[in-house]
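Figure 3 (text version): structure tokens given as input.
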């Protein structure tokens, strides 16, 4: 199982990085917003601690998406005036505070899903649309290895301490936007706040397939073989998420620097 953790996560990191480089920050954000960290964490929890643990953690994961939305809004708002360290610190703080709040709430699976979708929908409504110029760059040699180390470390640590955290808290922490943070920082540094905003809006767009993935797990993991459940969840999330790629890729490219939180 440790070997799987050390291979699956790096492959996902590399995939997201290459997608972002080829098609731009908006598509990269949409892909990074999928359950690339929390999905493997959920699978490992189900295998190592049982389906009941994974089912209980699913509710926490869906509520944790509300924290992801606050992270995205905070980073996007501050990125227009401040550098990435402050944006990451502020975003992480709001995520942590929201996680503390949602873990005190006991709700059924459907309500947690509605809360996640509602928060992301509201964020998409208030975040204005715009375009940015995607300019392919020559990547640094240490780029992907650094991303792999950061993301893999979180997956390994979180699955190891899950019994101490309990299913609800472990689930709520698992959506922490590791991939999003790594991509946002690199995008912010290299392409500016407009590109970072585009990436973050893509993350919000990924909420629906994310929620669908965990709804399938929450409803089926206690009744069907684990791997069948996760493959089914992946297929359902893909069917919902793929149509979102077309409108995201269809935006016009306009080179400009916004004065407020802008995205494609």
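Below: residues designed for each position.
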């Amino acid at each position: 199982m440790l070997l799987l953790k050390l291979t699956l996560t790096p492959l996902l990191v590399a995939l997201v990085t290459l997608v972002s480089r080829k098609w731009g920050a908006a598509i990269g954000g949409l892909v990074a917003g999928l359950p690339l960290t929390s999905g493997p964490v959920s699978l490992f929890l189900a295998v190592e601690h049982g389906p009941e643990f994974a089912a209980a953690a699913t509710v926490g994961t869906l509520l944790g998406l509300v924290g992801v939305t606050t992270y995205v809004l905070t980073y996007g708002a501050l990125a227009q005036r401040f550098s990435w360290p402050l944006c990451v610190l502020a975003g992480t703080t709001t995520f942590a505070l929201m996680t503390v709040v949602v873990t005190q709430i006991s709700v059924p699976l459907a309500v947690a899903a509605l809360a996640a979708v509602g928060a992301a929908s509201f964020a998409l409504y208030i975040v204005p649309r715009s375009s940015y110029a995607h300019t392919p760059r020559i990547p640094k040699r240490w780029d992907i290895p650094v991303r792999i180390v950061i993301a893999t470390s979180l997956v390994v640590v979180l699955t190891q301490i899950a019994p101490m955290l309990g299913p609800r808290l472990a689930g709520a922490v698992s959506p922490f936007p590791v991939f999003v943070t790594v991509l946002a920082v690199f995008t912010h540094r290299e392409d500016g706040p407009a590109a970072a905003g585009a990436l973050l809006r893509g993350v919000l767009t990924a909420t629906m397939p994310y929620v669908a993935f965990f709804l399938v797990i929450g409803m089926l993991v206690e009744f069907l073989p684990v791997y069948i459940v996760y493959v089914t969840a992946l297929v359902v999330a893909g069917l919902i998420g793929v149509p979102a790629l077309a409108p995201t890729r269809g935006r016009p490219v306009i080179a400009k620097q916004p004065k407020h939180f802008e995205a494609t």
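The chain has a mean pLDDT of 79.
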